[in-house]
Design a protein that fits this description.
about 575 residues, alpha+beta, Rossmann fold, 6-stranded mixed sheet, 17 strands
Length: about 575
C-alpha cells in the first residue's frame, strides 16, 4: 500500500505531498492539469527510465519519494534480504534525477541500482496504462497468477521439492560421468602413488615420535654417563644428597623435641628425603633401560629418510601425505567400481524422476482445469466492461527436452523440460474483436483497452493476487454510460482486496471513490504549477457534478451527483 508520495521539482510540480488511503483512490482534473505527471513521477520511483527533461526549470534535481506499507510482502522481503537491505513494515523508496543526467536510487536510505529498484517496484505496484509496471503483460508472471487463482500453491511446492531432489541427483550423475575419463586416465598414477605411500605406510604423528627416539639413541652414551653421575650424586656416592638430607632431618628431629616450632621444618626435610628417593629411583631405572642399538638407530634414520621423500613429493608435510593417500584411495576405489556407482545413481535418478513426473502431470491437469474456469469468468467480466466479443484462453504448453538423459520429466516415451514450477509454460491469449483468433496478451491490447482487460482479470484473480497496489491510468478511454458504471463498480469491488488508484474523467467512475483527489494547474510567478488536494464530501459532490455537466454546477447537477454517489 502506498501511504505517501512526495514529489519535488518534477515537470510542472514544484512540491507535492499526497497521502493515499486504503480502498479506491480516485484522481480527477482538467485535461493538461498534470494528472499523468503524478503517475509518471510514481513510475520513476518504481524504476522506470529517468529523463533530465523532467527536472523542473531552475532546479538542480528532481526528487520522488514513496512511503509504502509492506507488511506481509514476503516476496519483497526475500528480495531485500538477498541484497542485504533491511526489511521493515514501512519501506521508503526514493529516486533523484539531476539536470546533469545523474540518477540515484535508494531503498530505506540504502543506495541501490535502478534494476533492483525496478524489481522491488514490480513487487509493490501494478500500474496499468502506458507504463511497464503491468504484471499481466509480463509472460513470466502468468504461471504464478494462474497458480494463485487455482490455489495450487501446495501442489507447486510439492513439485518444487521433488524437482530439486531429482535435479541434485542428476547433477551428481553428470559430475560422476564427467569424471569417468579423468579417473581412467589417472587410475594408473593413483595406483603407483598408493603403492609408493603404502610401502612406507606412515601414520599421523609418527615423524615426531621417530625424531624423539632418534635423538635418544644418538645420545645414548651421554644419557648413560649423565644419569650414572646423577645417581651417585643423589644416592650412592660419598656425601650423597640423600645421606646429607637424612642427617639434617635427624638434627631437626632433635630440635623439634625441644622446640615444637621445628616441627614444620622437620616435616619438610622428610618430604625432601622422599623426593630425593623418588628422583634417584627414576634415574636408576632410566639408566638401566638405556640401550646401545646401532641397528635400530640406522632403521630410524632410513624410515625418516623415506618419510622425507614422501613429504617432498606429496605436499611438504606428513599430514599432506596422509590426506592425499585418503583422497586418491577413494578415487581409485571409485575408478575400480565406477560402473557400480553409475548404476546406483541412475536407479536413484529414475526413481525420483518417476515421482516428479507424476506430480508434474497432476499439476498440469489442475492448471488446465483452472485455466478454463478463469477464462470463462474473465470473458464474462470483459463483456460487462464493454468488450463483449472477447475470447480469452490460458495457453499451457510443454517443451521437449533437448537431451533426454538430462530431462527431469518423463511421461511415457516423451522427455520434457521443467523448471521448479513444473513442466508447463503458461501464457494468456486474448482476442477483443470478432473473427480474430486469440493472440498473446502483450501483443494485442494497449491503452484504455488493456486497462479494462487488466481490470477484468484482476476482478477474477483479486483474492489470490498478492500485489498490494493497483494503479489504473486511462481506464476510461473509449467507455461511457453503462460501461463506465460497470468499470466503477469493478474498481470498487477490487478495492476490497487491494489499494486502488485510478485516474478518470468520468463521473460514473469518480462517484465510487472512497477518497477523491483533484489535480489543478495554476499560474504562480508566471510559472505553471501542478497541485493536488484531497476533497471533503461536499467538494467531492461538486467535482462529480462538474464531471457530469461542466464548470457551471447547478442545483439539479448536484442532486444528480449525490444520487450517482449514493449520498442522500
Amino acid at each position: 500500500m502506498l501511504k505517501t508520495l512526495l514529489i519535488k521539482n518534477y515537470a510542472l510540480i514544484e512540491e507535492l505531498n499526497v497521502e493515499f488511503e486504503r480502498g479506491l483512490n480516485i484522481i480527477t482534473g482538467e485535461t493538461g492539469a498534470g494528472k499523468s505527471i503524478i503517475i509518471d513521477a510514481l513510475s520513476l520511483v518504481l524504476g522506470e527510465r529517468a529523463d533530465t527533461d523532467s527536472v523542473r526549470k531552475g532546479a538542480e534535481k528532481a526528487v520522488v519519494e514513496g512511503l509504502f506499507d509492506t507488511a506481509g510482502n514476503q516476496k519483497l522481503k526475500k528480495l531485500l534480504e538477498k541484497n542485504e537491505i533491511d526489511f521493515s513494515d514501512e519501506l521508503i523508496v526514493r529516486r533523484e534525477v539531476s539536470i546533469k543526467g545523474q540518477s540515484r536510487s535508494f531503498i530505506n536510505d540504502s543506495p541501490v541500482t535502478t534494476s533492483l529498484l525496478k524489481e522491488a517496484g514490480d513487487l509493490l505496484v501494478d500500474l496499468h496504462g502506458q507504463h511497464e509496471h503491468q504484471s499481466l503483460l509480463r509472460t513470466e508472471t502468468h504461471i504464478d497468477l494462474l497458480d494463485d487463482y487455482g490455489r495450487l500453491e501446495g501442489l507447486v511446492n510439492e513439485f518444487s521439492r521433488a524437482y530439486h531432489k531429482t535435479h541434485q541427483i542428476l547433477n551428481e550423475l553428470k559430475e560422476l560421468k564427467a569424471k569417468e575419463q579423468q579417473l581412467m586416465e589417472r587410475r594408473s598414477l593413483y595406483e603407483f602413488q598408493i603403492k609408493e605411500i603404502d610401502a612406507v605406510s606412515p601414520h599421523a604423528g609418527e615423524e615426531d615420535e621417530l625424531e624423539n627416539e632418534l635423538r635418544i639413541l644418538e645420545n645414548a652414551e651421554k644419557l648413560f654417563s649423565a644419569t650414572e653421575r646423577l645417581y651417585q650424586m643423589l644416592y650412592e656416592g660419598d656425601n650423597a644428597v640423600h645421606d646429607r638430607i637424612i642427617l639434617a632431618r635427624n638434627e631437626l628431629e632433635n630440635l623439634a623435641a625441644i622446640d615444637t616450632s621445628f616441627g614444620e621444618p622437620r616435616n619438610e626435610a622428610n618430604s625432601a628425603a622422599a623426593i630425593i628417593d623418588e628422583l634417584a629411583k627414576f634415574i636408576q631405572q632410566y639408566n638401566s633401560k638405556i640401550e646401545f642399538n646401532p641397528e635400530r638407530l640406522e632403521g630410524i634414520r632410513n624410515r625418516l629418510g623415506n618419510i622425507a621423500l614422501l613429504k617432498k613429493k606429496y605436499g611438504g608435510s606428513l599430514e599432506a601425505v596422509i590426506t592425499l593417500r585418503e583422497n586418491i584411495g577413494r578415487e581409485f576405489e571409485l575408478a575400480n567400481n565406477f560402473q557400480t556407482e553409475i548404476s546406483s545413481l541412475v536407479k536413484r535418478f529414475e526413481a525420483e524422476r518417476k515421482i516428479v513426473s507424476e506430480i508434474a502431470q497432476r499439476l498440469s491437469i489442475k492448471r488446465h482445469e483452472v485455466g478454463k474456469k478463469a477464462g470463462k469468468s474473465i470473458i464474462m467480466a470483459l463483456g460487462e466492461l464493454g468488450i463483449p466479443n472477447a475470447l480469452f484462453e490460458t495457453v499451457i504448453t510443454t517443451s521437449p527436452a533437448q537431451n533426454k538423459d538430462d530431462a527431469i520429466i518423463k511421461l511415457g516415451k516423451e522427455y520434457l523440460t521443467a523448471t521448479p514450477e513444473g513442466m508447463d509454460f503458461v501464457e494468456f491469449h486474448i482476442s477483443t474483436n470478432v473473427g480474430e483468433d486469440p493472440k498473446p496478451l502483450a501483443k494485442v491490447a494497449s491503452g484504455g483497452e488493456i486497462s479494462r482487460i487488466m481490470l477484468a482479470m484482476k476482478m477474477i484473480l483479486a483474492k489470490s493476487d498478492r500485489l498490494p497496489l493497483l494503479i489504473f491510468d486511462e481506464i476510461d478511454v473509449g467507455v461511457s454510460g453503462r460501461i463506465a458504471q460497470a468499470v466503477g463498480q469493478s474498481l470498487k469491488k477490487l478495492s476490497q482486496f487491494h489499494q486502488v488508484i485510478a485516474i478518470t474523467h468520468l463521473p460514473q467512475i469518480a462517484g465510487f471513490a472512497d477518497i477523491h483527489f483533484v489535480v489543478e494547474k495554476t499560474e504562480d510567478k508566471q510559472r505553471a504549477v501542478t497541485t493536488i488536494r484531497k476533497l471533503a464530501i461536499e467538494a467531492r459532490v461538486e467535482e462529480v457534478a462538474k464531471l457530469m455537466s461542466g464548470e457551471e454546477v447547478t442545483k439539479s447537477g448536484l442532486e444528480s451527483a449525490r444520487e450517482l454517489m449514493g449520498i442522500k
